[in-house]
Amino acid sequence: MLNIVLFGPPGAGKGTQSAKLIEKYQLVHLSTGDLLRSEIAAGTELGLKAKELMDAGILVPDEVVIGMIDHKLEHNPNAKGFIFDGFPRTIPQAEALDALLLNRKTAISSMIALEVEEKELISRLLIRGQSSGRPDDQNESLIAQRVKEYNTKTAPVAHFYQGQDKFHSVYGIGEIEEIFGKLCLIMDSL
Ligand code: B4P
After folding, report:
1. How far is the CA of 1 from the centre of ligand 1 (A)?
2. Could you give the C-alpha distances from 55 to 47, 81, 115, 183, in angstroms and in order?
3. Which atom of ligand 1 is nearest to the CA of 90?
4. Model confidence over 24-82: pLDDT tens digits?
């Protein structure tokens, strides 16, 4: 199985590149951001709790997202592999993912990080906010809060995969196709 963690700060291009990768490599896309937004849209209790945190630019509790991923793995027993987009975002999430995959006799193949400077992240997300209506893309201070959350809680997850010798990084500014080409080179080398 090919199991990829696509990593990077908010707005780095994870969702954008995941969509292209799943098409080319026939993998299942698991985005915790998308899963949480569908819970919000469905008005579930989980969604109501998550919305408050997401609208404030704060990560939702580990057990919530780990439970969602476990559920999705359970429902895709015949997948050729997975693209994890926006997960794991903390060290406990990374440890839990290793355990969930080990239970299924598989493992993460590689983490690929998209490196983008903060100024560009803020500009991309403000543009997306104008068209998507996503509450967490609406103002600069909220986006800065998400980047802060990333720097303190999520960035250390890269070291977790460096320690397993599974870390790759790609510069994430430029044409979408050009960045996709660099990701494919890594994917094809795995
Ligand atoms: P996510 O849905 O994961 O949102 P994101 O990080 O903001 O988006 P992404 O990174 O995928 O966007 P993309 O760059 O593709 O998370 C939202 C919230 O959910 C979090 O803040 C948190 O509260 C919660 N959450 C999610 N997962 C969690 C977890 N595991 N644990 C705890 N909480 C969790 O796109 C950004 C924009 O850039 C787009 O408009 C795109 O068109 C544009 N773009 C992309 N590539 C570009 C390029 N090369 N050039 C120019 N623009 C580009």
Report:
1. 25
2. 12, 31, 24, 31
3. 31
4. 999 999 999 999 999 999 999 999 999 999 999 999 999 999 999 999 999 999 999 99
